[in-house]
Amino acid sequence: MVIHGLSNLSNGQQRLGITEPISLAGPTEYDVIKTRELEKYLQDAGLYESQEEAVVREEVLGRLDQIVKTWVKTISHAKGLNDQLVHEANAKIFTFGSYRLGVHGPGADIDTLCVGPRHATREEDFFGELHKMLLEMPQVTELHPVPDAHVPVMKFKFNGISIDLLYARLALWVIPEDLDISQDSILQNADEQTVLSLNGCRVTDQVLRLVPNIQNFHTTLRCMRFWAKRRGVYSNVSGFLGGINLALLVARICQLYPNALPNMLVSRFFRVYTQWRWPNPVMLCAIEEGSLGLPIWDPRRNPRDRYHLMPIITPAYPCMNSTYNVTSSTLRIMSQEFQRGSEICEEMEAGDADWDTLFERYPFFEAYKNYLRIDIAAENADDLRQWKGWVESRLRQLTLKIERHTYGMLQCHPHPGEFSDKSRPFHHCYFMGLQRKQGVPVNEGEQFDIRLTVDEFKHSVNAYTLLKPGMGIHVSHVKRRNIPNFVFPGGVRPSHPSKITWDSKRSSELRVSGQNGQAEMSQGAVSGADDGRKRKRSEDNMDDNSKVSKSLTSLTPFSREVHEDRTFISASSTCSVKFDETEVNNMGDQKSEKPSLQFPSGDSETNGSLRINRELDPILPVTDTSVSKEEKLSSDKIISGPYEAHQPQAFPEEPEELEDNNAGSNQVRENGRDMKRDNSDSSISKLAVSEHPVISKETCSTQLCTNGGLEELEPAELTAPFLCMNPAPLPQKKPLIRLNFTSLGKASDKEGT
Prior knowledge:
Distance between the termini: 65 Å
CATH class of the domain at 14-45 and 211-362: Mainly Alpha
Radius of gyration: 28 Å
Number of strands: 11
Number of helices: 20
Strand order of the largest sheet: 3-4-7-6-5
Oligomer: single chain
Shape: globular
Structural class: alpha+beta
């Protein structure tokens, strides 16, 4: 197989990647010492499995391979194939993901792929006959087929080892034992689900071929996975980084510094991606056109690809963007974390920090004053598992809708994971941190009304075609002081904020520097007072109508709309959400006396925020005096990338496509049936979606955010296609999101008691 992205350097060393390396320098004595410290740190953190568990995994994979071979012979005989084909019938197990990459930890699941012949179907044979065989085996527990997922999967435990099993049906009568799935010809005449299922193995194998040193790659990737989990940026479905995303990012750094040890690779990881000019793509090799006509990531040809904010491209054909879930909010958060990591690595070189500093947990429930809480519930464990998967795939849409409907003024930070209240069976809870966009002037008393946005989100979630009685969702606003105790370790709320951390010290330094900057600005204002008076006299001579016209045209689109529509806002048009612990699926319409979701005009928390309150521009490079001149020149050239022209600003707006744009295969449940779950309190359901649909051209039309990025709502990993339906009539004279904000009310005070 020809591996694209390979060439030879002048010194005879093989070059990996689409560019020359940034540096060929080898490790220093300092790098050797710090790498040993890092390896010991990861060992002490429990990130390596024991030898006994490794043996059990090997045995499980061997047994699973025997099971699928028996299965394919059984179905071949049942389908009446001749004796020779039955004898030659074969299936084969491949692995991918963290296990194949060699970075899995204790208790991690194994991503596996079963490759079968053309006569072994997915629906009837894989999810039918093989499912029955596994169900009868005492070693198999927690068997859960998910045939309707974006990538169909069978989940189960075999002798206590978690297995995710995919299926690929090839256009071959016999599967050879030495099958090479890295060949593009394997995709010939394959259906879409088979291509997607094969993609994981093909990408994983290609990554391992494109890194210069496997052992250094393993250690660095294990370190970055641990860092991402501790800092709350490890979740592909939430719009952060998943396992394959981190593998691709780390592999690119290994290509750029082929002779570096993990200590230097970690430092350069943060340095390079702090300076990276997103949305230029990260690629390990050139993108292949291929001969099979499969769609590939190409912003020059595909309009949808132009709106990806942080493209990280898979190296195997068909090349895809592995981070299409990233939103402007999650990109901002990840950029801040890259910056933080880069600064800590610099401090480590100066002896002012250590690995503990880099891996400090992100204090999510101390970082914000306001949170959005999403509760889901079901009647049993199986229903909750299905409902959980569907809701998690939709949560990204809530982030996108809030960003769009508030014109980027309200920023969301989704927590990558769920919480469970042990006192409530079959219940999960999710949280999003909320804050006003930093660095934007604030008028006193401004509030945000996101109730209609939340209603729209709930409406799309409740359109789940496999919805069952008892499946419910509720969204509410909670203050930091009202966060439930069950989200904290041991169910005990800390009596005081976390210990002094790098983040809190950095935040304090920024506040001090900000105050000094304001003092300097005030001095400059005095010296420029005379010039200001001259400008004022000149402006006073202008015609009043000209002044009004100029003020409107000089406003941003967001400000201009608000200025024009101010008179249409009713002060009594309050929006709030009522939360009742006993009714997970009801949203109430509270009166104006309920507290509002207000955001103070200050840029930082009054109690000593642990959050770095500043905006990071992921497009502009950061000056680093510790980088050699040659390395900086090479880095700047690579970071700029070849795709700068594909930024959203350079193209016309893309037509709006809401998340429910896959038509035909599934059906939306009727609103009448959906409302049966909500009729337990008819007085609370006056603003139900079925009565007042909130989807309108004004609310959901494609809008450019203030940062110039276009937020596109597209299907997440777990999709449920919908039939095209005529929109319900819109309520008349009902204003939506405007600057004269009212709020999504907080949860009832009784909830915390």
